[in-house]
Write a structure and sequence with these properties.
Elements (H helix, E strand, L loop, with lengths): L17 E4 L2 E4 H6 L1 E7 L5 H7 L6 H15 L3 E6 L2 E7 L3 H12 L7 E4 L1 H11 L11 H15 L5 H21 L8 H13 L7 E4 L3 H12 L5 E5 L2 H5 L3 H4 L3 E4 L12 E4 L21 E4 L16 E3 L1 H12 L4 H46 L9 H16 L7 H9 L7 H19 L4 H4 L2
Parallel strand pairs: 7-8, 7-10, 8-9, 10-11, 11-12
Antiparallel strand pairs: 1-2, 3-5, 3-6, 4-5
Length: about 450
């Protein structure tokens, strides 16, 4: 039987992007394929489920505790994102089944109506979410800010690691491209602007108005800003902790009256408009806790989950809750030529996706080439100390780069003999003994590198 020699060298696997996680190497492709997401966008059939799984209404501390519990139980990084119209969970290195079962278990629920996404489809869907392509008002800006804030919360509290957080960096980059293409950066329509228009309409119909704002968080402060911009001076804010709330914005709080909820009903206030921005898991006002004013008033509830139920208002009062805002938002969305925009976005996202994957590949191709050139340069330093060096010193650096270029340009497998013959057949005037050493060192080193599974292993 003839000698078959050493197996062929195939370094292509090392040019696939890889990362080390817990001491194990993973290719970028395998990491992306290991990403799973369960998501619900609110509609009439799943509204009760969304309420059960959303983090809206939780304090920052409670939300961090929830995500940490899911992460611990799942045994891998988890990203959670809730807004007024959606809830989603992203898991890394897991399946949709495992992720959903874990979330159900933590919330103590037996079922849900989650949509499922895996691999690159998770990236595609999150790009749509972040860009406002999947919002009530297409292209709205508010969701982008919420998404970026959620990423920061996860990173600052070690809920996702550096490698997985880079996945979201690419989503933000794609979002910028889409918004620029569609002109969404100039789009002012959002839930806040929708509210501003509705508030202006109500106030224009009433003289000597007084307004009540429930809550002084981010949305509550924005509501106050809108009221002040429209010339309103009689504004009362009810908060759980007035002292703490006023410190959030000293200048703004100096222009309004901030009281505790216990004072509502004791004060002689008959508001023309009530705006609720309370963050709470369960409705604050319902059949057992009625709004403490009986005068006819328009009530705008911008909370999610809802802070006011229809059973929590008095006769003659009108409640504009989330269902109302959804209907209005969809009507406003018509002007965007929704279908054409979505179709165009699919093409754009596909092109961005190709660039995203290509960038990952190109990046690691560069890392691979740099590694090979660096390895050969290190060998040339050793050769320059060889006793048979003679007058060859000046050529060794250039020769090492020539060998590295040959290796990096191989598009397929090659045999150790091919590599050795390439070195030995050089036209450079090198000492024959030194040249044999060069051929031997290069072949031995490349065979050793070929035995590694990933570039991360080879560089150890």
């Amino acid at each position: 039987m003839s000698n078959l020699g050493a197996p062929n060298i195939d370094l292509r696997k090392l040019s696939i992007s890889s990362h080390s996680i817990n001491g194990e190497s993973h290719s970028t492709e395998s990491l992306i394929n290991g990403i799973s997401m369960i998501s619900m966008k609110i509609n009439s059939s799943n509204v009760d489920y969304v309420k059960k799984f959303t983090s809206e209404g939780m304090s920052k501390e409670s939300r961090i505790e929830l995500i940490s519990k899911i992460k611990h139980k799942l045994g891998s990084d988890v990203f959670e994102f809730s807004t007024c119209n959606r809830v989603l969970y992203v898991g890394f290195g897991t399946t949709c089944d495992e992720l959903e079962n874990c979330v159900l278990n933590v919330f103590g629920q037996e079922e849900a109506l989650f949509d499922r996404y895996s691999g690159i489809d998770v990236w595609r869907h999150l790009v749509k979410v972040c860009s406002g392509l999947d919002s009530f008002i297409i292209g709205e800006l508010q969701v982008m800010s919420q998404f970026r804030g959620s990423i920061s919360l996860h990173k600052e509290n070690n809920l996702i690691g550096d490698i997985n957080s880079s996945f979201f960096s690419h989503i933000i980059s794609a979002n910028r491209l889409l918004r620029k293409e569609f002109g969404f950066n100039q789009t002012t329509e959002s839930m806040l602007n929708l509210a501003s228009n509705a508030i202006e309409e109500v106030l224009s119909q009433v003289e000597n108005t007084s307004c009540v704002v429930l809550g002084f968080g981010e949305m509550g402060r924005k509501a106050v800003e809108v009221l002040l911009s429209q010339g309103q001076k009689n504004i009362v804010v009810y908060s759980r902790n007035p002292e703490k709330s006023s410190k959030r914005d000293l200048e703004l709080s100096s222009k309004v009256k901030i009281l505790s909820f216990e004072h509502w009903g004791k004060e002689e206030i008959e508001p023309s408009l009530i705006i609720s921005t309370i963050r709470n898991i369960q409705p604050t006002f319902n059949s057992s806790n009625i709004i403490p004013t009986s005068s006819p008033v328009k009530i705008m509830d911008f909370s999610w989950p809802p802070s006011i139920e229809s059973s929590g208002i008095n006769n003659g009062q009108e409640l504009l809750g989330m269902e109302y805002w959804i209907k209005v938002a969809h009507k406003l969305g018509v002007e965007w030529d929704y279908d054409n925009t979505i179709n165009k976005s699919e093409v754009l996202i596909s092109n961005i996706e190709k660039k995203f994957m290509s960038a990952l590949s190109d990046r690691n191709q560069g890392l691979f080439r740099a590694f090979i050139y660096r390895t050969l340069e290190q060998l040339s330093v050793q050769w320059s100390k060889d006793e048979n060096l003679g007058d060859s010193d000046i050529q060794l650096g250039a020769f090492s780069r020539e060998i590295a270029t040959w290796i990096c340009n191989r598009e397929g497998p090659f045999s150790p003999n091919e590599l050795s013959e390439m070195v030995l057949s050089t036209d450079r005037k090198l000492n024959p003994i030194l040249l044999k050493r060069v051929a031997s060192d290069v072949t031995e080193t490349i065979i050793h590198i070929n035995g590694k599974s990933t570039l991360a292993e080879a560089t150890l």
